[in-house]
Design brief:
5 helices; homodimer; 12-stranded antiparallel β-sheet; mainly beta; 275 residues
Chain lengths: 275, 275
């Protein structure tokens, strides 16, 4: 039997066997997605989303996901509670909580929807003249925590600094090709994780060390299953930039594009920092 | 006694008098902020935020708010449940629900924080060469629902179409000066409401009628109390644009700027549409 992809292992949740806890799932942090301390937030986001994906009452596909990181996630088991708080004809609203021994470590809200064909248009502008992924060198992940090693990142602009030389840059914009490593066919869970794979903009901008931690992450899924299937396991184009840094918090915004120029997801996050 | 501002009336919540329901608040929709059907979503957002603001266990000030609109809000009473699910030394995480007779009508998550001075920088670019609010004509609100009449909007670009002439525009970008009408000193609640005051981008872009409804609204508060006090009751500069329209949903992103060029809030929403 083929070995499971580490991402599939990371989001492999177990539904509660007890009849009186139909909304409970359990999961575990995965060493392949470890961060400096605790797990990569993208994997935690994907686990939170996955609870709703696996829930027997789920309708439709995710269109919006907001994850709030309430406390450091400890390595080990996580208990999830996923409640469909409102189910309409074509939309469904979720509140999802992640618990560990000492309390709530993350919360999420999600909107799922049954989509229909409508007038469609991409108004955002995909970066032009970007070289193909096979001619852009892959970022070396030497010395990085485990999670970035689970991504193949090829920076066209705004690379993670090779050294923290404290040379402040004019902007924090990054453009990169990115995919799971090893290759894996894109799905909603991996798109949710990819949305948290943009390095904190303050590192790109200031090129100096800072304590950081995402406090809130919102992703809008523009892609539906057929579009994800078209992308398959190829690289997607990521774009990220910061908007504002002020008094301990900054926000950054990102886009994930299919090679053919469809916007798969737009994503926004607020990050705590201590300089 | 001076008459209360209609916005203060709209967000005037009553804490539960019962000892066993410390997290409950009740409010009521306000006719001055009525939309075509039910209340303006911005007022509902402000009420949800206000629950946390009024809660005796609250620490700090809001830095992130996500509101999901789960079902149409009926005119009348709303029961709110606001739970501080995690309180750390300098951050606090909330889950807030709005209930009416038939069930949950909205949910919110919020992050509050005690801020500290750090390196600060505005990376987003405020529109340049914008004429002062007193030389830009105020938008006529004739024939509009009640809520836009509670705002003084002065469009520099991307005005609400005078007629739905179905002339598709090249983009959906709007730039406008906006403040409460009558004037009111800016606070977190009104900033939350302002974040939902950008008209749906599809009207600007397509200039045709469409059924729309915001499903999820996220606001990052870059302003703290001292900065809000500096703005006072003056106009703030709003900028909004859409990113992607696809299969029944589009997202739009907005910024609210102080006259002096501080980014007060960045805001993002996902909107259902039927064309």
């Amino acid at each position: 039997m083929a070995r499971m992809h580490p991402f599939d292992q990371a989001i492999d949740l177990r539904a509660s066997a007890l009849q009186d806890t139909p909304h409970e799932f359990s999961g575990v942090t995965h060493p392949a997605y470890a961060n400096l301390i605790g797990p990569f937030g993208g994997t935690t986001s994907a686990q939170l989303l996955q609870c709703a994906m696996l829930h027997p009452e789920r309708i439709g596909e995710p269109v919006a996901l907001t994850v709030n990181f309430a406390a450091p996630v400890a390595d080990g088991e996580i208990r999830f509670v996923a409640r469909p708080v409102r189910t309409n004809r074509s939309t469904q609203h979720w509140i999802i909580e992640a618990h560990q021994a000492e309390g709530v470590v993350a919360t999420a809200t999600a909107v799922f929807a049954v989509r229909r064909q409508t007038w469609s248009h991409v108004e955002a502008v995909m970066p032009a003249n970007v070289p193909a992924p096979d001619v852009v060198p892959r970022m070396s992940m030497n010395g990085m925590p485990a999670w970035p090693q689970r991504y193949d990142m090829r920076f066209v602009e705004g690379a993670f600094p090779a050294a923290f030389d404290e040379q402040e840059q004019a902007h924090s914009r990054s453009t990169l090709w990115v995919r799971d490593e090893p290759e894996r066919v894109l799905d909603f869970a991996s798109l949710a994780a990819l949305s948290d794979s943009f390095f904190p903009r303050i590192y790109i901008r200031l090129r100096r060390r800072a304590m950081i931690g995402t406090v809130s992450l919102t992703t809008y899924f523009h892609a539906d299953s057929p579009l994800l299937a078209q992308v398959g396991s190829r690289h997607v184009l990521g774009v990220a930039k910061a908007l504002n840094y002020r008094h301990g918090y900054f926000d950054q915004t990102g886009e994930l594009w299919s090679p053919e120029g469809q916007l798969l997801a737009s994503t926004h996050q607020l990050v705590y920092f201590k300089d």
